[in-house]
Amino acid sequence: MKTFNVPVIYRSPLITAIKNSRKQLDRMKKDFTPTVLDFGPLKVLLARHFGFCFGVENAIEIAFRTLDENPDKRIFLLSEMIHNPHVNNDLLARGVQFIMDTAGKQLVPWESLNPEDIVIIPAFGTTLEIEAKLTSLGIAPLQYNTTCPFVERVWNKAEQIGQQSYTVIVHGKPGHEETRATFSHSTSSTPTVVVKDMAEAQLLATFITGEKPAAEFYELFKGQYSPGFDVVKDLQRVGVVNQTTMLATETQAIADYIRNVMMDRYALTAATAGEHFADARDTLCYATNDNQSAVTGLLQEEADLAIVVGGYNSSNTSHLVELCEERLPTFFISSDEKLVSANEVEHWDFHHKQELHSFTFLPQKEQVTIMLTSGASCPDALVEAVIRKLLSFYGLEHKIEELAAKFK
Ligand code: SF4
After folding, report:
1. Cα–Cα dist 305/261, whole Å
2. Which residue in 140, 229, 124 sits closest to 181, CA to CA?
3. C-alpha to C-alpha distance for 61 and 146, rounded to whole angstroms
């Protein structure tokens, strides 16, 4: 896979060496067992895959190169480039301005932009409406485009099934930048509706079967369907695509569920299912699959707790947390600074969108085992910092050098 020029502050030579060593031994990525870092009183089980993905490295390279090459220009990002506060703060510190927040609230008025300005499209992509807005301001919308190719692949898939007269059901978070962009692109070629989870897929199914009166759809799915959506006509042929970072098991369950609903509704067989259901279930990206499979591999092991590092508004990271917390106490932290002491941790409760302060953290026992992973927008340098911080709680800081020597 292509390598990118990412600022060295985000890299960790130690983590890179560990990842390279695993890659050498498992080129086909079939082994999802963790890397065991045994420090005696502390054992860290490091996920097989974690950290910066292709799309994030691509976006970072373009954004920092644009800054270097255009010292005299005003540089804007449509919104956060990726969902990691460290990277976004570094860009802000270098003078980049965000035009919108992640919820789409305007921070910089469009009228204040001029044709000389540079506007970078983030890795999530953007809507056709925003592209048109930039064009109307004299700014070429795709000149500084960091949209991840795996997101564009979803748009292409939506367009492809749209051209075959299927309505697109997007499994995604309706307010997420990527889902808003996918919704916009899909809507340009076919009727489109967003479902955020299985409960909403089941609700949508009641309109497919006619169980609920069509009129109720427009209130229940307000803001989640394309203009002119005809709930009777537009739910007769459907296909499911997804936000690239959803939970793989849920997205598959939703596609299977909707397919079964269509088969029952139209008395189809496996051979004729395609008459009403387009098979488009492969739109999760490779990083989401790898990172979630690596967590599944982690969870085959025994441990006392899990730590997941990443931005609190990161969708892919929150799904890793979701998987871990089904099995063991899990702490979602944005950086090593959240590990205040051996007895104290500040961590994010993504269910209730609040930071919690816990005072029971590391258990008192002979050897504590911790599972460790991070999201696709989290720099490896932060994962190394977390390992160093944990070691410091045991007076074992020097062990990091021994570990580095082992992976040289
Ligand atoms: S998580 Fe996947 S889709 Fe998102 S930026 Fe990374 S590679 Fe691209």
Report:
1. 39
2. 124
3. 9
Q: 253: CA distance to ligand 1 center in Å? A: 21
Per-residue pLDDT of 223-279, as tens digits, reads 999 999 999 999 999 999 999 999 999 999 999 999 999 999 999 999 999 999 998
DSSP string, 1-43: -------GGG--HHHHHHHHHHHHH-TT----PPEEEE-SSEE
Element (DSSP H or E) covering residue 189:
none
Under-70 pLDDT residues of the chain:
281-282
At residue 353, the 3 state secondary structure works out as: coil
Does any ligand 1 atom lie closer than 6 A to the CB of residue 56? yes
Residue 178 bears catalytic tag: yes
Which H/E stretch holds residue 218?
A: helix 214-220
54 lines ligand 1 (CB under 6 A): yes
| pLDDT on residue 250 | 93
The secondary structure element, H or E, covering residue 134 is: helix 128-136
Type and span of the H or E element at 201: helix 198-208
pLDDT number for residue 281:
65
Cα 250 from Cα 164, distance rounded (Å): 25
CA torsion, ordered 54, 248, 26, 386, to nearest 10 deg: 70
Position 65 scores a pLDDT of: 96
Domains in the chain, ordered, with CATH? 8-53+286-406 (3.40.1010.20), 54-136 (3.40.50.11270), 154-278 (3.40.1010.20)
DSSP for 250-304, written as a single string:
HHHHHHHHHHHHHHHHTT--TTTGGGTEE-----S-HHHHHHHHHHHHHTTS--S
Single pTM value for the model: 0.94
Q: Is 381 in the pocket of ligand 1 (CB under 6 A)?
A: no
What is the C-alpha to C-alpha distance for residues 283 and 151, in angstroms, rounded to an integer?
8
Spatial separation of the C-alpha atoms in residues 192 and 185, rounded to whole Å: 10
Res 312: pLDDT: 96
Amino acid 81: pLDDT: 87
Alpha helices in 300-398 (DSSP H): 315-325, 380-393
Query: Would you state the structure tokens that stand for residue 45, as one six-digit string?
Result: 């089980």
